[in-house]
Amino acid sequence: MGAGTGSYEPPHTVLAVEPSSVMIAQRPASSARAVQASAESIPLADDSADAVMALLTVHHWTDLEAGIGELLRIARRRVVIFTWDQVAFRRFWLVDEYVPQAAVFDDTRAIAVDGLAALLGGARIEAVPIPHDCTDGFGAAFWRRPEAYLDPQVRAGISMLAQTGEEAIRPGLARLSDDLSSGLWHERHADLLDRETLDVGYRLLVADLEDQPADRGPGVGPAEQE
């Protein structure tokens, strides 16, 4: 769900759902088949998928309850959601020290992890430590590579920075640049330099539906469309 350009898809993905035609057009030819639709109205029959996965997408949905209801409707065995805990994420050095405006923006769209687990009818919540050389480019992926946040191309791929706007974060980025040049950042965050992973607040929610009551779903949704 919210598959975008296919960056998060494991090899066994059967069907990708993405609302943006622009994103779908950028998917590699080897990607799974994609259907243009939103999480709130998935064109699949009830219980039509063994598992449903939604990674860093629920905060973009216009109707969270409807979207979660649709995931529960079409999944037979499991729903997996990757998101973040905003309270923990606010302690991340980038937003805490340099661009608090981005944290304020995220406050308006972040989904409380406990509330999300409740909507799923109960879910296991696992912390996801981020490796220092993470190949993805989401918000805190560069926690040990601070110079990356000075790259406009990197920032363009991080929604909290791109949507907060360059004008709002420019002063903080200038201070980050100065602190990197002077060595102050490295002094302040010397404890990070030898770490392999860091818990920056990212969380994985796993709902095993076979352990839940049979009436877990919100009712019949859209029939499968060909």
Written description of the protein model:
It is a single chain. The chain has 226 residues and is of the alpha/beta class. It has a single domain, classed as Rossmann fold (3-Layer(aba) Sandwich). Helices cover 33% and strands 18% of the residues. The chain has helices at 21-25, 64-74, 86-89, 93-98, 100-107, 113-119, 152-156, 159-164, 166-182, 184-188, and strands at residues 15-18, 33-36, 49-55, 75-84, 124-127, 130-131, 197-198, 202-208. Strand 1, helix 1 (21-25) and strand 2 (33-36) form a beta-alpha-beta unit. The protein is globular and about 60 Å long.
Strand content is 15-25%
The main β sheet shows up as:
4 strands, mixed
CA gyration radius, whole angstroms: 19 Å
**Spatial arrangement of strands, main beta sheet:** 3-4-8-5
Distance between the termini: 18 Å
The helicity comes to 25-40%
**Nearest-integer average pLDDT:** 91
What is the H level of CATH, i.e. the homologous superfamily?
Vaccinia Virus protein VP39
Helix count, per DSSP?
10
Contiguous uncertain segments of 5+ residues: 217-226
**From the helix content, strand content and strand pairing, which structural class follows?**
alpha/beta
